[in-house]
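Entry 14. Structure prediction run on the chain below.
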Amino acid sequence: MMRSIVLTGATSMIGIALVKQCVQNNVRVLALVRNDSLRLNAIPKSDLITTINCDLGNLVEFDDEAPFPVDVFYHLGWSGTDKQGRKSCNKQLQNVAYTLDAVRLAKKLGCKRFIGIGSQAEYGFYSNPVNSFTPVNPIDAYGTAKYTARKLSEIECTNFNIEHIWVCVFYVYGTESKDDDLIKSFIVNCKSNKPMGLSPCTHIWDFLYEDDAGRALFMLGEQRKFGKTYFLGSGTGRPLKEYLEEIKSIVNPEYVSGYGKIPYTGESTRYLCADITELSNDTNWKPEIPFEEGIRRMLEMFKRE
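Output returned:
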């Protein structure tokens, strides 16, 4: 049983969801954070959580002793995730180095398992749910760096006798989404009846609520199997337009959506769906929060704010 974790990226949407799962299950958390992060307040308040100032660039210099023994290292931190950053080879190459620094820190802290976060971008364009048989084919610096980080961290973990798991994340949404997130932006514009330019929205996408994502990562920390790459999504793909129309029906049925205002380009993601069979078989995890329920939770959050 997992008793404690250390993680980077604790202030990210998935990081916060994972921390919440740990608190609910009485697992201690050592969160390595930037002290200037604007999202520090988003980390839950609990005696089980200890935060230490250490950004990704300082992992290799981390000399503090952990305040308690740690079992699993979750590496969620990644810089340059905006549109321009994803295209930058230099920024993305830095992330590969940060990932190896995280593995070495995991060794220093005595962790038995390393769980890294990858992306559907490692697979480029495809037309079926992605699984372990799908050929890797990244088309940008971000996806290439994620795949490189996966393979090199796996090698380094083997060198250090640390169990290695990689999780390719698809589209996670929820209350902690960034302001420029598609789902969050559409809800806001729909509520205020403001025009929003959209693509034709005919491509197939897969949306997973943040709490389900956090629960999956927690369960991967506890399960016995390792040495695998898992694919994290809802496992169900639908045309993007269907999701947006579902939001409209809840938020503002009279809203006029700007479908087709932004034409598709060669860089458009055509198919975004995870095959979660292996993840479900190995952990007994499955998504529990329907898309409609996730949207209603986001609306409740907007009301409180």
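The radius of gyration is 19 Å.
Filed with the rest of this week's runs.
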